[in-house]
Amino acid sequence: LFGAVPFDIGGLPSRFPFLLVTPQYEVEKLLLRRALENGAVIRYGTEVAGLEQDGDGVTVSVRTDAGDTTVRTGYLVGADGARSAVRESLGLPFPGKVVIRSVALADVRFTEEPPLVVRVHGTGGAFGFIAPFGDGY
């Protein structure tokens, strides 16, 4: 299914000449903890419908399963991807290029311990990536 090509990143001119792969759930747990420690309010199941910004903060129109409402806040972080409703509401351009249109992420436990190498596979329309985390994952 997956082939392997040796790729040595040890010679790259970087202070960090290594590859660090961390499970998505660990990254999310860390970001959530730090955000909450710093007073952030995290809202799940909430869609930004629009926003108005002034010198004192942001008023955000949101849609939830319970209905539409507004939220007043000092800051609004748009961490909602390349098609960001927050960025679009501000009229900001996206200077990058969307290469991957959708992603499926799975933490899979193998019946046998996978080799301790990163495997990457790509074709014109698909991309696959396997990185062992240990303990059969």
Task: Note down, in words, how this protein is organized.
Helices cover 14% and strands 23% of the residues. The protein is built from 2 helices and 5 strands; from the N terminus they run H-E-E-E-H-E-E. It is of the alpha+beta class. The chain has a domain at 46-95. The model has no long low-confidence stretch (mean pLDDT 81).
Strand segment count:
5
Q: In whole angstroms, how far apart are the ends?
A: 17 Å
Mean pLDDT equals 81
SSE arrangement, N to C: HEEEHEE
What is the beta-strand fraction? 15-25%
Helical region count? 2
Tell me the overall shape.
elongated
Instruction: State the low-pLDDT regions, or none.
Output: none
What structural category characterises the helix and strand content? alpha+beta
Helical content band: 10-25%
Quickly describe the structure:
By secondary structure, this protein is α+β, with helices and mostly antiparallel strands.
Question: Which descriptors would you attach to this protein?
Answer:
137 residues, alpha+beta, three-stranded antiparallel sheet, two-stranded antiparallel ribbon, 2 helices, 23% strand, elongated
Write the layout of secondary structure elements.
Blueprint: H1 24-37, E1 47-54, E2 57-64, E3 67-73, H2 85-89, E4 119-122, E5 127-130
Antiparallel strand pairs: 1-2, 2-3, 4-5
